[in-house]
């Protein structure tokens, strides 16, 4: 061993697993430094041994490396173990600990030399008196040797494995846990080798031995108890090791599991379930399917009529899910046989009261439905049902019938508490079976239909029920569905019609037959229309309108039937003829028919173009689209193309005659039909439209020449006016664009030129709209007609056409961004960019928003690297926008600042360039122009919100000083906005950073901001949990998007609730789509909450009202008016003599004073009030310093000193005046009120025998006499 220490090359000792301690360092010194502060005795022993080893190495001139310590430790430990008798554990344990620390730092070759390391470790592990700490260190050494040194694993490992297995059942939990971990590492390392087989066999043999010992021993015997405890220990080990063992031994262990599962003991069942769950989840484990299915069947039957814990149910459901799925993938035939029993077991879990178990069982049922029911199983069931219908005797229900019966049983009343989960399982079965669900789920569907009649009070799952029925519609198809659940339209009582089915059919119908709509639904429409006419003739208009609504509901099903229909080629011709007739006679159905045509055409075009629906589509849509391929869709389009001429003729005629197209349905249908129609059909329609446009234009010119009126005075209210006629013709041209070629588009462009210069705003608007759509749909149109477009865009347009002209300008500027000609690019941008920027100041909100969008879209075009853009071009574009600041008029300057703010908000790369504008921004703030000041403050707000903290710190001083320098006369106009900016700076940079650059004369403002913030935080901290949670929800749901009104507004509520948080959220991450969208519902909710919050002014703050802040002033005035109106309208309720509430219609009259008789009646038992309740008398009863009081004077006796009981009246009573000082915050006022109440108690005996009225009069007289004397004295003094 000495030679080992001397001759080992130190370069061998470092392995990949220990990069933290270098070989050249002193291992002993390193360990002493870590343990020097410890007071534990074992650590002191360890340091002592390390010191001895260090001295020995120093005396022998050996380097103090891990290899040297390993060698010396082995020598020392070998000598200790070679001594006669039991070695001292306090000396052996530090040696073993040192070995466990140095083993990972020594190479495998050194560890394996002479086999000494393994022999020493095994000797230590065999010590009977070894402590758990010693055993843990020894096990660490052993597992390192077994997993690192291959020769030990192959030749000398059998003895090691048996020792390792002995510790699996050790009494100490830490030792058992480490031994199990070591076994897992050994099995993982040796997988597929002979040692792997031997270790697996040893584990299985050990389990069987202890299981047999526990089984054969007598109940209550010591051996039986020990065997049961050892079985539990081994089960704990198997949770980690079972999945890594060989197939043969896994099967042996699972056979033992069956015996344990029969016991139904949760302490035994849980580790068995965990072990099997790990086996099923491990994709590399060798699973014996037969044995596994037997155990799964036993597990499924555990909960039938037995009380079991929620955890056991939950983990069993998860095991059944993964176990059956794995078994089905390995042996389908064996798994299918066990499916019914597993489904029944999961049903038992669903019937439990444990929510987590119910969710797990529901998930397992849905998963097994989709993974373990295949086409062959369904086909087998269908064949069985068909044979039974042919009177062919069948032996027993098929597997799929049993499964459907089990699923149907979930609708029994037994499961009424979990019907919402049951509906999910039923929906999954419908989705899986598809059209074949009509064979198996007919009774289930009838049961679902009957559940609709349940009252709402005891059935809160109406929505889930409708979703489940919708799954049946999508699976069976509407034709089969309506044959089982009828609409009952023929019922004489309209209340018996199942109108609740209409929205379900409309939402979930997909892949239906057009012939069914033509033959069945349309016949229903005709029948119901005739019935409506009959009812109208009979003088029943309400019933007639109800039937008309049913007719409309039937027509509303047409778009759903056009959703991937299966018989377009065979049936659309008949449907087209019907639709042409209905379009001309029934105006209310035109929108539905147009939507149906759009769906039918667009879906087939998408399939031909290779567009497929997303993967998250419903199973019904996936089945319907699977039947569609490019050939099928092309055949459908061919049929649609044949019907297009007739439909186009009808639709264009209706479009001309109606003069109104709500929602653009007619235009969209014409456009889709034009896109698939033959070329000559669309060309014919185009030239017809152009001729009509020419005639209408000539008529309009003639009218203008004969008219004396000025610009834009045409009667646009008349739908047949020349302007409206030309506008409709332009809309028709837009619809025809998808079916036109380049030459025809040029023809339309020629007709647009005079219209773009027409004096009427409506005509200009339509012309620019047509041109913008042409530019959008044709990529080469701009380059081909660039000169003409530039000339047209220089013309001044009507204000109503501005938005569509901005669209045209975008395409021109985007084209300029892609050109390589710098001169051409500069000319185009310099010509039209100022017009886009000036549009940022438009009054019309849509125009203004479109201008912002165009500005940003052009920026993206310059930055798009795929189309020739780059960061340099983007900065050049930004500089051109900045150049507009040189304008002379305030409108242009403020618009340019807004444009800079919008680009900075969108592109983070421009923030540094925007900081260069700060000097100009602060100079502009010195101007006495409100418009420019608002824009610049908005720019500063964007910079503060979007900039990183480092950029703000670099410019903090200049920003704070610039914000606080104001010319006279404008300082107070924007006080709230400046305060908001300072709060944003404090929030991002910190109070100390802002304080360090704040001018001394403005320190009071910073102090006030801090105090208000602390007051709000304190108020929020004292709020309820509900308000806190609502605050967090509101904060998290804030929309992160550009809002120019909020940023550049005059006085806004951003001071109250914004703090720039929405823009801060935007700076962390924002998609382009989300920046442009906002939910209407959330907008309405926020608006409502703002309005409600503005109804009251928070008067608890000590901050005085700033009368220069118009927002605060208006808010205060509005709040005071509201309180005044509320006080004026706050009247007492009026009751009659019997206590009933009186409600007067129309004008409220003054109530008369109630007589004494009424007073007596109201004092009777059971009345609502006692005493005179008129408003006038109520005021008399109200004292000056207290609340309402009632003296009870009608009970006072005139002959005696006490109170009298009166017939039909309550016993004598009186109210002591409630003193509002009891609620005062001041202690002295509360003390006065308490003394007043205590005096009543003291005077109780003194007033005994007197009436309540007399007693109260006495106390009040004394009380108010003093106050009256003080008041009179005060008056005399003043005089």
UniProtKB/TrEMBL annotation:
Q: What is this protein called?
A: Ribosomal RNA-processing protein 12-like conserved domain-containing protein
RRP12 N-terminal HEAT domain mapped to chain residues: 16-287
In residue numbers, the region (Disordered) covers 1055-1101, 1121-1204, 1259-1279
Question: Would you identify the family this protein belongs to, as annotated?
Answer: Belongs to the RRP12 family.
Ranges of biased composition (kind: Basic residues): 1260-1279
Origin, by domain of life? Answer: Eukaryota
- SUPFAM superfamilies found in the cross-reference section: ARM repeat
Q: Where is the composition biased (Low complexity)?
A: 1072-1084, 1164-1175
UniProt xrefs under InterPro entries: ARM-like, ARM-type_fold, HEAT_RRP12, HEAT_RRP12_N
Name all RRP12 HEAT domain ranges. Answer: 352-657
- Ranges of compositional bias, category Acidic residues: 1055-1064
Enumerate the PANTHER family for this protein: OS02G0782100 PROTEIN
Bias class Basic and acidic residues marks the residues at 1137-1163, 1195-1204
């Amino acid at each position: 061993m000495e030679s080992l220490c001397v001759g080992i090359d130190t370069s061998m000792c470092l392995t990949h697993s220990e990069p933290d301690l270098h070989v050249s360092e002193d291992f002993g010194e390193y360990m002493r430094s870590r343990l020097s502060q410890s007071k534990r005795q074992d650590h002191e022993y360890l340091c002592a041994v390390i010191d001895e080893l260090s001295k020995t190495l120093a005396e022998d001139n050996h380097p103090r490396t891990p290899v040297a310590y390993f060698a010396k430790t082995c020598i020392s430990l070998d000598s200790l173990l070679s001594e006669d008798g039991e070695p001292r554990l306090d000396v052996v344990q530090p040696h073993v600990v040192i070995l466990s620390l140095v083993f990972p730092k020594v190479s495998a070759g050194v560890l394996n030399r002479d086999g000494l390391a393994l022999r020493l470790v095994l000797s230590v592990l065999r010590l009977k008196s070894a402590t758990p700490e010693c055993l843990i260190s020894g096990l660490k050494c052993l597992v390192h040797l077994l997993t690192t040194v291959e020769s030990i694993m192959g030749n000398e490992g059998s003895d090691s494995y048996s020792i390792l297995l002995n510790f699996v059942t050790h009494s100490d939990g830490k030792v058992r846990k480490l031994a199990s971990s070591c076994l897992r590492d050994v099995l993982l390392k040796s997988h597929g080798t002979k040692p792997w087989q031997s270790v697996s066999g040893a584990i299985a043999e050990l389990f069987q031995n202890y299981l047999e010992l526990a089984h054969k021993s007598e109940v209550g015997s010591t051996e039986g108890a020990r065997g049961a405890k050892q079985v539990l220990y081994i089960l704990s080990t198997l949770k980690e090791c079972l999945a890594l063992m060989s197939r043969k031994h896994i099967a042996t262990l699972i056979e033992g599991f069956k015996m344990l599962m029969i016991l139904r003991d949760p302490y035994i069942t849980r580790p068995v379930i965990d072990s099997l769950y790990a086996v099923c989840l491990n994709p590399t484990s060798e699973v014996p399917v037969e044995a596994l299915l037997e155990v799964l069947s036993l597990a499924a039957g555990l909960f039938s009529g037995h009380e079991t814990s929620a955890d056991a149910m939950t983990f069993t459901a998860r095991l059944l899910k993964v176990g059956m799925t794995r078994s089905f993938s390995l042996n389908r035939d064996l798994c299918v046989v066990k499916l019914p029993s597993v489904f029944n077991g999961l049903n038992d879990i669903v019937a439990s009261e444990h929510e987590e178990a119910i969710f797990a069982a529901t998930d397992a049922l849905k998963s097994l439905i989709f993974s373990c029911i295949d086409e062959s199983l369904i086909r087998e069931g269908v064949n069985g049902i068909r044979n039974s219908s042919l009177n062919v005797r069948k032996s027993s229900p098929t597997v799929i019938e049993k499964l459907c019966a089990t699923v149907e049983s979930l609708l029994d009343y037994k499961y009424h508490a979990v019907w919402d989960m049951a509906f999910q399982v039923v929906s999954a079965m419908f989705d899986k079976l598809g059209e074949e669900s009509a064979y198996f789920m007919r009774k289930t569907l009838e049961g679902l239909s009957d559940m609709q009649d349940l009252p709402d009070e005891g059935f809160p799952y109406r929505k889930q029920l409708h979703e489940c029925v919708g799954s049946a519609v999508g699976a069976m198809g509407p034709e089969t569905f309506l044959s089982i659940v009828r609409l009952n339209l023929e019922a004489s009582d309209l209340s018996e019609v199942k109108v609740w089915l209409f929205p379900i059919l409309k939402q979930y119908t997909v892949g239906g037959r057009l012939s069914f709509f033509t033959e069945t639904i349309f016949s229903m429409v005709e029948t119901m229309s005739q019935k409506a006419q009959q009812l109208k003739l009979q003088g029943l208009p309400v019933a007639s309108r109800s039937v008309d609504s049913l007719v409309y509901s039937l027509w509303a099903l047409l778009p759903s039937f056009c959703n991937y229909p299966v018989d377009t080629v065979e049936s659309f011709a008949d449907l087209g003829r019907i639709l042409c007739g209905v379009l001309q006679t029934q105006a209310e159905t035109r929108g539905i028919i147009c939507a149906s045509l759009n769906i039918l055409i667009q879906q087939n075009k998408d399939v031909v173009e290779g567009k497929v629906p997303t993967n998250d589509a419903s199973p019904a849509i996936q089945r319907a689209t699977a039947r569609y391929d490019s050939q099928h869709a092309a055949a459908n389009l061919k049929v649609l193309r044949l019907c297009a001429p007739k439909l186009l003729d009808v639709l264009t005629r209706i479009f001309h005659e109606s003069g109104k197209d709500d929602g653009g349905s007619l235009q969209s249908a014409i456009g889709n039909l034009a896109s698939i129609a033959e070329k000559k059909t669309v060309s014919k329609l185009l030239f017809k439209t152009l001729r009509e446009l020419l005639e209408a234009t000539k008529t309009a010119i003639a009218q203008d020449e004969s008219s004396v009126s000025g610009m834009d005075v045409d009667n646009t209210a008349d739908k047949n006016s020349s302007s409206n006629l030309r506008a409709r013709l332009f809309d028709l041209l837009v619809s025809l664009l998808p079916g036109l070629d380049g030459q025809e588009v040029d023809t339309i462009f020629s007709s647009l030129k005079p219209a773009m210069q027409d004096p009427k705003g409506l005509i200009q608007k339509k012309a620019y709209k047509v041109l913008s759509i042409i530019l959008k749909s044709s990529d080469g149109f701009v380059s081909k007609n660039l000169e003409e477009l530039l000339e047209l865009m220089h013309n001044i347009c009507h204000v109503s056409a501005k938005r569509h002209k901005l669209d045209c300008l975008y395409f021109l500027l985007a084209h300029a961004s892609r050109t390589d000609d710098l001169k051409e690019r500069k000319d185009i941008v310099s010509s039209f960019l100022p017009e886009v920027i000036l549009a940022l100041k438009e009054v019309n909100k849509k125009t203004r928003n479109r201008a912002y969008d165009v500005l940003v879209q052009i920026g993206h075009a310059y930055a798009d690297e795929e189309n020739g853009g780059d960061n340099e071009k983007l900065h050049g574009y930004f500089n051109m926008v900045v150049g507009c600041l040189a304008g002379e008029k305030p409108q242009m300057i403020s618009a340019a600042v807004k444009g800079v703010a919008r680009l900075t908000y969108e592109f983070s790369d421009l923030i540094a360039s925007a900081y260069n504008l700060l000097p100009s921004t602060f100079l502009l703030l010195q101007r006495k122009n409100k418009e420019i000041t608002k824009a610049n403050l908005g720019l500063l707000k964007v910079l503060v919100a979007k900039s990183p903290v480092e950029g703000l710190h670099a410019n903090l001083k200049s920003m704070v000083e610039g914000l606080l320098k104001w010319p006279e006369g404008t300082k107070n106009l924007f006080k709230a906005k400046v305060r908001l900016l300072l709060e944003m700076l404090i929030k991002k940079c910190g109070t100390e950073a802002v304080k360090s650059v704040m001018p001394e004369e403005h320190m009071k403002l910073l102090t006030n901001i801090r105090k208000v913030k602390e007051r709000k935080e304190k108020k929020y901290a004292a709020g309820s949990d509900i308000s806190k949670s609502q605050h967090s929800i509101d904060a998290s749901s804030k929309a992160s998007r550009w809002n120019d009104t909020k940023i550049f507004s005059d006085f806004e509520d951003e001071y109250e609730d914004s703090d720039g948080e929405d823009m801060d959220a935007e700076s962390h991450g924002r998609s382009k789509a989300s920046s442009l969208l906002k939910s209407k519902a959330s907008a309405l909710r926020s608006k409502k909450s703002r309005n409600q919050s503005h109804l009251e002014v928070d008067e608890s703050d000590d901050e005085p009202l700033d009368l220069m802040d118009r927002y605060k002033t208006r808010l205060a005035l509005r709040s005071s008016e509201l309180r005044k109106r509320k006080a004026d309208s706050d009247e007492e309720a009026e009751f009659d003599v019997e206590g009933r509430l009186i409600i007067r219609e129309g004008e409220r009259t003054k109530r008369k004073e109630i007589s004494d008789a009424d007073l007596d009646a109201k004092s009777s038992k059971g009345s609502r009030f006692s005493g005179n309740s008129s408003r006038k008398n109520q005021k008399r009863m109200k004292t000056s310093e207290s609340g309402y009081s009632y003296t009870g004077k009608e009970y006072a006796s005139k002959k005696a000193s006490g109170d009298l009981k009166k017939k039909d009246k309550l016993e004598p009573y009186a109210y002591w005046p409630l003193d509002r000082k009891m609620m005062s915050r001041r202690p002295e006022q509360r003390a006065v009120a308490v003394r007043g109440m205590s005096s009543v108690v003291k005077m109780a005996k003194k007033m005994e025998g007197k009436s309540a009225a007399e007693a109260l009069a006495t106390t009040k007289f004394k009380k108010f006499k003093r106050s009256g004397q003080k008041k009179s004295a005060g008056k005399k003094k003043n005089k």
